[in-house]
């Protein structure tokens, strides 16, 4: 099947009316179903490359033909009972309309603001829900060429936590470091830190308990990391770390409450209007 000569015709069809001309010739046929150039105009809107257009046309025609063949096989092989999908279609339409209305309602009514107090209250009320599956740390990481000047300055700064020294560290690392991550004092996976270091550790728990400062080197680089805090797998996650998990839970609970409120209030209102009668 050749597709190249269809491209110009399709671009012409795009400029024409959406209605098929009575003399329009089909570009493909499956049994009694025809595919026309005008059926492809939406597919090629915005496509400028000739090669892309050819591939899109080919894929569209192939998918259309397969779909029509399968539909024909279904029509001739299924029983009349199996082919009667009116109830399924009605149920699907009903579910889809209700879902869209619910989503519109939620988008209008849902309060997405979650206070620190709400996060803390949920965390304290559900202590067993936030057990860590891996070790996490608060740390920084620096990878710097061995040729960088004044490495001793870096060694004296990377374990500091006061603002004045942190500014000096930032200035030095931004100027000389190949990689500088301070992670903004946030909890993150210890494995993420290990992936940055030229080291393999068999016992993470022992390593974390024994090391706060990490200084390594290879042929070209020095590696520095300072572990300010750590939390081991199997313990409860710190509330700051659990926040990312708690917020979606709270929002989901609010959505469920809104769904229930919508259903119950809507039914109550229509009962009061005598639009619903339960015998």
What is the strand and helix layout of this fold?
Layout: H1 6-14, E1 26-30, E2 33-36, H2 50-77, H3 80-83, H4 86-109, H5 116-125, E3 136-145, H6 151-157, H7 163-176, E4 179-181, E5 188-189, H8 190-194, H9 204-210, E6 213-217, E7 221-231, H10 239-272
Helix pairs in contact: 4-10, 5-10
How would you portray this structure in words?
By secondary structure, the chain is an alpha+beta fold. It has helices at 6-14, 50-77, 80-83, 86-109, 116-125, 151-157, 163-176, 190-194, 204-210, 239-272, and strands at residues 26-30, 33-36, 136-145, 179-181, 188-189, 213-217, 221-231. The protein folds into 3 domains: 6-80, no CATH class; 87-129 and 239-273, no CATH class; 132-231, Chitinase A, domain 3 (Roll). The chain has 10 helices and 7 strands. The strands form 2 sheets. Strands 3, 4, 5, 6 and 7 form a 5-stranded antiparallel beta sheet that branches. The protein has a two-stranded antiparallel sheet with strand order 1-2. The radius of gyration is 32 Å and the shape is extended. The mean pLDDT is 89.
């Amino acid at each position: 099947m050749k597709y190249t000569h269809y491209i110009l015709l399709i671009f012409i069809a795009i400029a024409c009316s959406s209605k098929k001309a009575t003399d329009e010739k089909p570009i493909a046929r499956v049994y009694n179903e025809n595919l026309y150039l005008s059926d492809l105009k939406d597919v090629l809107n915005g496509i400028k490359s000739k090669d892309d257009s050819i591939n899109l046309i080919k894929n569209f025609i192939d998918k259309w033909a397969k779909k029509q063949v399968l539909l024909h096989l279904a029509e001739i092989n299924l029983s009349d009972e199996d082919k009667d999908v009116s109830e399924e279609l009605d149920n699907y339409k009903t579910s889809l309309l209700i879902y869209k209305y619910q989503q519109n309602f939620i988008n209008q009514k849902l309060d997405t603001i979650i206070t620190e107090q709400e996060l803390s209250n949920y965390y304290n009320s559900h202590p067993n829900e936030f057990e860590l599956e891996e070790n996490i740390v608060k740390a920084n990481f620096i990878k710097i060429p061995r040729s960088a000047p004044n490495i001793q300055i870096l060694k004296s700064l990377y374990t500091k936590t006061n603002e004045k020294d942190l500014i000096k560290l930032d200035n030095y690392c931004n100027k000389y470091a190949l990689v500088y991550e301070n992670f903004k004092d946030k909890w993150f996976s210890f494995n993420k830190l290990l992936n940055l270091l030229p080291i393999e550790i068999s016992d993470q728990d022992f390593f974390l308990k024994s090391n706060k400062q990490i200084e390594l080197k290879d042929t070209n680089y020095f590696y520095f990391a300072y572990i300010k805090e750590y939390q081991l797998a199997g313990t409860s996650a710190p509330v700051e770390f659990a926040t990312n998990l708690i917020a979606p839970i709270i929002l989901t609970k609010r959505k469920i409450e809104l769904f229930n409120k919508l259903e119950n209030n809507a039914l109550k209102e229509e009962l009061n209007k005598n639009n619903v009668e339960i015998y």
